[in-house]
Amino acid sequence: MKKYILFILLSFTGMGLQAQTFSDDNFIYTVAPKKGVKTAELTTLTKDQVTQNVTYFDGLGRPVQTIAIGQGGNGENIVTPIEYDPFGRQEKEYLPYAVANGGTGYLKIDVVTALNDVTAFYNKPEYDNASNPFSQKKFEASPLNRVLKQSAPGTSWAMDEGHEIKFEYKTNTDSEVKLYKAAASWNSGSGLYEIAFTDEGNYAKNQLYKNVTYDENTSANPAETSGSTVEFKNKEGQIVLKRTYDLGSKHDTYYVYDIYGNLTYVIPPKAEGTISQEVLDGLCYQYKYDNRNRLVEKKLPGKQWEFIVYDKLDRPVATGPAISPFKEDTAVGWIITKYDVFGRPIYTGWNNTTCNAAARNTLQVAQNSAATLFETKQTSGSIDGISVNYSNVIAPTSFKLLTVNYYDNYAYPNAPSIPTAIEGQSVLANAKTLATGSWTRVSTTPSSIVGETGTTFYDDKARPVRTYTQNHLGGYTYTDSKLDFVGKAQYTITKHKSVSGIAEITVREEFTYSAQDRLLTHTHQINGGAVQLMADNKYDALGQLESKKVGNSTGNPLQKVDFSYNIRGWLTGINKIDNLQQGTDPVDQFAFKINYNTTETGITDVNGLYNGNISETFWKTAADATERAYGYQYDKLNRLKNAVYEKNSLTTNAYNESLTYDKNGNILLLVRNGDTDPQIQPIEIDNLGYTYTANSNRLSKVSDTSNNTSGFNDVNKTGDDYSYDDNGNLIIDKNKNITSISYNHLNLPKKIIFGTGNTIEYIYNAAGQKLEKIVKEGTVTTTTQYLGGYQYKNSILEFFPTAEGYVKNDNNVLSYVFQYKDHLGNIRLSYAQNPITHVLEIIEENNYYPFGLKHKGYNDYVATNNKYKYNGKELQDELGLNVTAMDWRQYDAAIGRFMTIDPETDELEQLDKSPYSFAWNNPVLYNDPDGRNPIKNFFKRILKAVGKTTIKKAIKPEIKELLKSQKSLKNLIVEHKQKLKDFNKDPIGNSSKEALKKMTQDNPSQEVLLQRAKGRATALEKQIKKQEGELAKVNKLLSSSGNSTKMVAPLVAPTSSSLTGNKRADTYIKTVSSLTNFVENFGVKTFGNNDMGKVIDELNPLNLGIAPVFEEMAE
After folding, report:
1. Helix (H, G, I), strand (E, B) or coil at 1052
2. CA 615, CA 640: separation in Å to the nearest integer?
3. Which end of the chain, N or C, is less packed with Cβ atoms under 10 Å?
């Protein structure tokens, strides 16, 4: 019997919870119970036992006011006025505001009163006494209703103050845009369309739509060459050119399509002038397709060609080239994936066979004729010498097994017995559609079959209540969760041991929540010992986290951390920079302040910024109570140019960092001061000049003219410093005396060999999770083990993380260390109670240059065993390696670059940037914790906010865009269905004349033409299906737009206990899917289900609210 989780959403007209009273206007009232009741019992629930919302509508059915009943930080009602102009447009979109909860009467507030109330609410010093608590659009005076300007809430962003986002709509001139074409010719021998790049001069005038967008930093009447983004689109709506400017110089990214509309080339800004094949291979993106419009070959800048093979259902079944995942093995092959009857991936493997274009075609031909499309579940079996309960009949059948996934039940090898109950909750034995177990190989040697196993048990509502992982050493980590009716964790219990036969560590965490489901308290207890406070949260009227108490107990905390925000919801402060002692609260050990549109330092050319960039940061610690600051300057592409250091309001330049870039964002020059903090002449420690291989992003040499070994140490003085493999991975670094680096199938380093003979070796599981680091220095071997967040050195526990820091082990005595993080998740200060005197002590302080190098010369402490610092990631400083290990790449802060290519470098927003750049060269605003895609601090704060009205406040302006998307998607579906209908009538005749002519020249066979047309029809069917799915999402979101609780309900998910590894993210697949959909629908970069576990911890550096929801999914 299939199980469901139900949210009851009821509409009331004359009756309601506890005899609620409403206005006579049209309205929809929704109530979501927080405990299980029958419908007839709804009226017996108290207001704290339900979530209530009411939306009022006008006579045209348009929402005019929403009230989130009792959803404020202290139970206030959250009201959002909605206003329309005479043409029915939302010219102004108001922020929500809080009013006292009157009890049982939720009458609509009349329009005038509501607008007066919202203005009064934000007319306060903390909101800069704003008189415009709304975003506003200025429309073009035409039936097109195009937006000319859009302002944001806040005095500084008010309409006609000059800091709006501005739009212009034009067409191209006759010499403005180059006309590049991609010729596609069918190659039957290769089974794909070969491509050729041609330069056809320029587009004729008025052939392209030209849209110019000016950001909020531009002047009231800006020139196109100052702070604009220009997009040229063809008549099919495809972007042909994206143009930006810096210092008046064009930075052009061209998108070139074949005659079938497939993106075939991307020409980034650095590839200017004559586009030769050398330029295409070194700097550009190239894509090839088969006759079903499937991407089958691609070449990323500086990387070899990659290949993809599909089955008949268009699922990728083989990708390559993939380097061997096993250490000491440099062979290259394929990663293969097999599926079950429901299209779920069931296992993957590495196939050691030739990987090139010819091999791809051979594999594809075999797939095209395959009679079997899926593997089946079996009661027993073996693949690669490993017990697997699946068949293995689809070619290839010989490979090294990497991962196995099980679904629906617990009938698989080494599965634990099904408990009847977990923490008093019935366990679901029939787990249809759910992920139940996994096996992941530990990539040591090809002959070793050691792996990690994972199991997830669910309650009768299909919610994870136990996650169990057995590690490669024979130990385990499992977490049990006690959930309430709506899925919030009341408490979790985690048990861990590294190997069998040793004492178990038991961690119990308990959570309490407000009536609005916001986290109130979070406590932590080890092995039944003293309970330690992780967080005691307090929220403001809008539900934003206002303060939290940390450490010891609620009545006597070690710290009380205060947070402040501006009217746009941007974080502006952690504690008070001007006073570390607030009343009777403990002395703040750390304070941090962020300025955006204002400045205080007086540093030359540091100005207020209005587009979200940070103009200044200030910090102060209790170590010396000295206020330090950075003032920032950016170029027109939002790349950091200068960070100027100030101490005690005096510009000393002691830790300045300055940079210049090429058009792709590769650093050309980096100048850095450091080593001393006194107010004297600064010391230049780096003056770095970067040299790149011609027509590429590959760094070949860095020269330091400072003659200072601090910062970057320029050891090699002759020839190139760096060499790379065919995948763009760094393999030689002469400055660090690295003679060889080998990589695995995920381009993660397997072994680093130094000229001295010393080595660093990494062991991963097949999913890329690091399990061991083995450092051999002379005759001494040091092994670090990473076991689901618990970190060991030579088999002795060093520490494991908590929501607010970590627990360290000193001679088998476990003690808490708490940490402050800044807005980017950088570890800034660690503190703990002295075990003897119980005095609070700072044990480590870290302050950084913007690009991550640590300041030296003040507040230096003895290094701790915990090396997680910049971006919250581990510094690998053994043997002088000195890189930060992000999840998927290693980052060198001394030169501000990654060592390998971004695995997601061909994502749309990264196509105009170097695949080696860090945080899009704006590390003040973005971090890059997993090494694949930068994350903006503001959005992290939104995701962290348990205050549902905070999220509603952030997404409210997007409702209008959703309506536009809804209309657009409906039109596209109609259009594509008509096209599909036409194709089915006459598949060849309806091809364009140019396409038909070209296909006929390439291959006159009527059968090939029909096959190609069929491929286009299949592509249209897929487009329609995708668009219908997107429309369903939009419709669902729009239907929820008046209900802030429903909007973020997917974010409130069951949690588990302490941090126990990335693989546990798999047990949260439903929550992650909901979160991914939520983020995706608001246009923010998302991550896949398997990746979210690694990312979530970075989305929550300040633990602002839903820490217990997400922290348990993080590594």
Report:
1. coil
2. 11
3. N
